[in-house]
Design brief:
Layout: E1 7-10, H1 23-33, E2 37-44, E3 49-50, H2 60-63, E4 71-72, H3 79-92, E5 97-105, H4 111-121, E6 125-129, E7 132-137, E8 145-150, H5 160-177, E9 183-184, H6 207-218, E10 223-227, H7 234-242, E11 247-251, H8 264-273, E12 276-277, E13 286-288
Parallel strand pairs: 1-2, 2-5, 5-6, 6-9, 9-10, 10-11
Antiparallel strand pairs: 3-4, 7-8, 11-13, 12-13
The chain binds zinc ion (2 copies).
Length: 300
């Protein structure tokens, strides 16, 4: 199989939801796999989420940040400790290109705190993410008004199609409402949690919503991430290209060393078939090979 593309979305012990993260072991794993480059994009979350079912059994790492009413308050990112760890790893693994980074949750909702964090970090790679959706209940229903749900948790209270539509609408608002990130992470995030009893998830059912979000992102000249936690459907990469998208990155979204690079080579092959190519340097974004004029077919 072909070589690995760069892994542009990786978490370590500095991410609050990665109890088994380990930056140094992740670097060792990257060298072992032959990854050209890696970006440590730790979580920065300024929002507070409320679990739909507060009595749900939670893993230790999550319960320590959750109050009895199910309100989760993520801790702040230790930027200083993180940057010191990256510096140590760069020294220890000189052959590996290590990018600093951060994964911002809904930066368009938290502009002041996001700007303060970015000033502090001087990050090489900034991912923009949606993890929380805002759902507007129809007037006259029991819970009229706007409610926030974790996108995975939302399936407990909303129809599966509604979760995906709400999610993609928020992605479009993120794309147009924030200019601080370089790459849109996991446009298919809610598909990870798609309920099995809802049948297979066909992206064509949401084509209009995907295209709208992709067009909004392409209009800002930024990159789309091919996240491999679930394989991104190739048709979405095709829509990205058709809507004017020029650049792509890859992300395993690994939260522990053993998951690094998972699915990246398969994703690279898929993206290549859709007309994207690596840049000059192994850590560059991948770019479209857009054909500007269709050559005439050869005469028989
Ligand atoms: Zn994420
Ligand atoms: Zn992530």
């Amino acid at each position: 199989m072909a070589s690995y593309p760069p892994d542009g979305h990786v978490h370590t012990q500095f991410s609050w939801d990665a109890p088994f993260g380990d930056m140094e072991r992740t670097c060792a794993r990257a060298v072992e796999l032959g990854l050209p480059s890696i970006a440590f994009t730790e979580h920065a979350e300024f929002g507070i989420t409320t679990l739909v079912d507060p009595d749900r059994e939670l893993p230790d790492w999550l319960s320590q940040y959750t109050d009895p009413d199910g309100v989760i308050t993520p801790p702040a990112l230790d930027v200083e400790g993180y940057l010191a760890s990256v510096a140590r790893c760069r020294e220890k693994f000189p052959g590996l290109r290590i990018l600093t980074g951060v994964e911002l949750s809904e930066p368009h909702w938290h502009t002041r705190r996001t700007a303060e964090l970015l000033d502090l970090g001087g990050f090489d790679r900034v991912l923009g993410s949606v993890h929380t959706i805002r759902h507007t209940e129809e007037p006259g229903t029991a819970a009229t008004g706007v409610r926030e749900y974790d996108a995975g948790d939302a399936y407990h209270v909303l129809a599966a199609e509604t979760v995906v539509r709400d999610y993609l609408a928020e992605v479009a608002r993120l794309a147009t409402g924030s200019d601080v990130f370089h790459v849109l992470a996991h446009i298919d995030y809610p598909i990870r949690y798609w309920p099995t009893d809802a049948g297979p998830c066909d992206p064509h059912a949401f084509e209009e919503e995907y295209r709208y979000a992709l067009r909004a992102l392409a209009g800002t000249g930024r990159a789309l991430e091919v996240n491999t936690r679930v394989p991104l459907h190739p048709v979405i990469v095709g829509w990205w290209r058709e809507e004017g998208g020029e650049t792509l990155t890859f992300g395993s979204d690994a939260h522990f060393p053993e998951n690094l690079g998972t699915g990246l080579r398969e994703a690279a092959a898929m993206v290549e078939a859709a007309g994207f190519r690596p840049g000059a340097h192994p850590y560059d974004l991948w770019r479209t090979t857009r054909v500007t004029a269709v050559p005439a077919p050869p005469r028989p």
